């Protein structure tokens, strides 16, 4: 699938600085569902075009449980713009989407002439216009005809958007609205998707005439999530159940929110073979087993007692053989190299690192990021700044915690680890976020760094 961004701003080659991509090179990125490429088919002072192409690997696609047998291979995912393309856009143009540029900071806040083309996009001319026109775009959505022998138009359009906008705004419009039009996200939608929607919709979504439709579709028709998002968008005028057709969400315990956030991060990484490092009595293992996308699950812990508890919790002795083949438990110390941990799509360290003595933490980093080297690593840990909200708490949250970090300390550690071991990292909060202290839990998603050709 393809998306192009063109500008006639002078000099037009400033587009390369804004996107943080050199026009003379082809940039390659490993994605959970294939490979993304960024290239510049034209780059002159008068006109510059950046093209994002996503080459989808059908074997990495997740087939729906109710789909027909070959649906993983016979579908429109490699061709029609969807959440797959939105995820690729967010990864390869992350700085531009956030409105930052080291080389052209003065340009990030300026509206420049832009033309964006998405050659194949699911949707009708009417719906595409209703979504993009209120944002200042001139919309040209040409229906794509079916084969002559069939006649008529398909359910896809060839979309061109033209307007004078900040590049960051344009990318955020696309990030939200491409999956809205496709109406079929490729990953499991968890509560942290609300934060993504609000962040990318800042400054335009609250006043959009189709905000209810956008929230509902972006959040995969999960009623509680959509209602929460809409209430947050317009706190002074709460959305009624009749308007949104969605009930009010009930808060889940922090432990459940944390598990949901980890599952969402694993889905975002496209992982199917997963390590739960420091699995303890198996709370996350139980959640992983419920998700059919995870074909191989390994629970690892230094404590044999914890592994026995996990086995009882999972009822391994009574588990059907087909399920039993998906999971195994191994005893190992995370501060030592263990070749059994190599070759997996992702590893999870959920509430683990704070139990490790700080002088031993580099050994864990070397073992997990250096030796095992999974495609992605998900780390969660308490945010010590949030502890002021726990009445009566003195010291740390657990007697076995060796340390608890502030958000700045966690970000510094995660950035250093990512740099040393060849990963990129994004950090997000989990749980109810306070304006001053942040969320109670902080999560880092490490993914192997891009390969640039």
Automatic annotation (TrEMBL):
Q: Which GO terms describe its biological process?
A: regulatory ncRNA-mediated gene silencing; RNA methylation
Q: Where is the Hen1 N-terminal domain?
A: 1-233
Alphabetically, the GO molecular function entries are: metal ion binding; RNA binding; small RNA 2'-O-methyltransferase activity
Has the keyword Methyltransferase been applied to this entry? Answer: yes
InterPro entries in the record, alphabetically?
A: 3'-RNA_MeTfrase_Hen1_bac, Hen1, Hen1_N, Hen1_N_sf, Methyltransf_12, SAM-dependent_MTases_sf
Q: Which residues form the Methyltransferase type domain?
A: 275-377
* Keywords annotated in UniProt: Magnesium, Metal-binding, Methyltransferase, RNA-binding, RNA-mediated gene silencing, S-adenosyl-L-methionine, Transferase
The EC number(s) attached to this protein equal: 2.1.1.386
Q: Which reaction does it catalyse?
A: small RNA 3'-end nucleotide + S-adenosyl-L-methionine = small RNA 3'-end 2'-O-methylnucleotide + S-adenosyl-L-homocysteine + H(+)
Q: Which Gene3D superfamilies match?
A: Hen1, N-terminal domain, Vaccinia Virus protein VP39
Could you say which cofactors this protein requires? Mg(2+)
Family, according to the entry, reads as follows: Belongs to the methyltransferase superfamily. HEN1 family.
PANTHER family reported for this sequence: HEN1, SMALL RNA 2'-O-METHYLTRANSFERASE
Name the chain's protein.
Answer: Small RNA 2'-O-methyltransferase
Report the source organism. Actinoplanes octamycinicus
């Amino acid at each position: 699938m393809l998306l192009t961004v063109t500008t006639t701003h002078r000099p037009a080659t400033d587009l390369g600085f804004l996107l943080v991509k050199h026009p003379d090179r082809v940039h390659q990125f490993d994605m959970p569902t294939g490979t993304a490429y960024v290239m510049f088919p034209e780059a002159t002072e008068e006109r510059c075009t950046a093209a994002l192409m996503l080459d989808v690997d059908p074997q990495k696609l997740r087939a729906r449980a109710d789909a027909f047998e070959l649906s993983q291979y016979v579908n429109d995912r490699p061709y029609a713009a969807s959440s797959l393309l939105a995820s690729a856009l967010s990864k390869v143009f992350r700085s531009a989407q956030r409105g930052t540029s080291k080389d052209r900071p003065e340009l990030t806040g300026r509206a420049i002439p832009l033309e964006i083309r998405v050659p194949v996009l699911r949707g009708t001319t009417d719906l595409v216009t209703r979504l993009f026109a209120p944002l200042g775009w001139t919309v040209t959505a040409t229906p794509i005809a079916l084969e002559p022998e069939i006649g008529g138009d398909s359910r896809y359009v060839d979309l061109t958007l033209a307007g004078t906008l900040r590049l960051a705004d344009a990318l955020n419009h696309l990030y939200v609205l491409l999956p809205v039009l496709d109406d079929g996200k490729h990953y499991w939608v968890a509560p942290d998707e609300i934060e993504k929607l609000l962040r990318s919709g800042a400054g335009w979504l609250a006043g959009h005439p189709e905000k209810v439709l956008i929230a509902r579709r972006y959040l995969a028709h999960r009623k509680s999530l959509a209602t929460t998002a809409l209430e947050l968008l317009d706190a002074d005028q709460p959305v009624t159940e009749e308007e949104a057709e969605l009930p009010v969400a009930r808060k889940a315990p922090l432990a459940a929110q944390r598990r949901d956030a980890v599952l969402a991060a694993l889905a975002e990484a496209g992982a199917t073979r997963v390590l739960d490092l420091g699995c303890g009595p198996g709370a996350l293992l139980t959640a992983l087993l419920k998700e059919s996308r995870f074909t191989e699950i390994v629970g690892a812990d230094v404590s044999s007692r914890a592994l026995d508890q996990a086995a009882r919790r999972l009822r391994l002795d009574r588990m059907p053989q087909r399920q039993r083949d998906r999971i195994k438990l191994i005893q190992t110390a995370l501060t030592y190299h263990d070749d059994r941990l190599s070759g997996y799509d992702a590893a999870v360290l959920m509430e683990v690192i704070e139990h490790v003595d700080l002088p031993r933490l580099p050994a864990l980093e070397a073992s997990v990021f250096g030796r095992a080297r999974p495609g992605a690593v998900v780390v969660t840990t308490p945010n010590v700044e949030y502890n002021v909200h726990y009445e009566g708490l003195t010291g740390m949250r657990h007697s076995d915690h060796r340390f608890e970090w502030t958000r700045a300390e966690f970000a510094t550690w995660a950035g250093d680890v990512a740099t040393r071991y060849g990963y990129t990292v994004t950090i997000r909060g989990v749980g109810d976020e306070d304006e001053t202290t942040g969320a109670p839990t902080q999560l880092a998603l490490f993914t192997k760094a891009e390969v640039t050709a």
